[in-house]
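Task: sequence in, structure out. Protein: VOC domain-containing protein.
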Amino acid sequence: MPLGHISLPTTPSTYKPMRDFYLATLTPLGYTVYEEQEGVFFGLQSNHNPDFWLHCAPPGSAELPLVDRSLTAEENRKILGGRTHLAFTVGGKKAVEAWFRNAVKAGGIPNGEPGERPEYVKGYYAAFVLDPLGNNVEVVHFNPCWLQVMKMVPGIAIAVFGAVAGHFALGYAKAAGWV
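Result:
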C-alpha cells in the first residue's frame, strides 16, 4: 500500500521556521495548504490528498534545536544526530535542480548537490538538503534504464508489426500478380 501521510514534529519555537521552509519548498512541487491551526499543526496536500503534516509539541515540551546555518550538513548531523529522511518524486532532472536551488534559498542546508546517484541505481537523479530541524529532505527523479526501455516497447512493437504486416502484404500482392 502507498504511504497515506507523514507528520514531522516541531516545537513552539521551531514551528514557524519549519512551516515557512516546507511551504516554500513544497509549493513549487504542487502542494497547497490543506489546513492549519497556527502553532499546533500544519497540513499540505498534493492531488487533494493531505499527505504532509507538521505537528507541534505542547508548550513546555523539550525543545528541538534548529540547525546551525554556519555549519555544513555533516557538522549539523554530528550535533543533531540522525533525524527523519523524506523523499519527494518529481518529473525530471530540471525539477530536481530547481527544487534544490529553491530549498537552499528557503534556508535548507545543502546535503547533496543535484546529480546522478549510481551508487543507488542507474537513473536515480536526486538532491538533498537539511530542513531547519536537520531532517534530510530529498527530491528525486527516478528513470532507470529498464523503465526507459519499457517506454519504448509500444513504439518498437508497432514498428515490428508494421514491418511484418508489410512483408506479408507485399508477398500476397506479388502472388496475386498485383506487383
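The helical segments are 15-26, 73-80, 93-105, 145-175.
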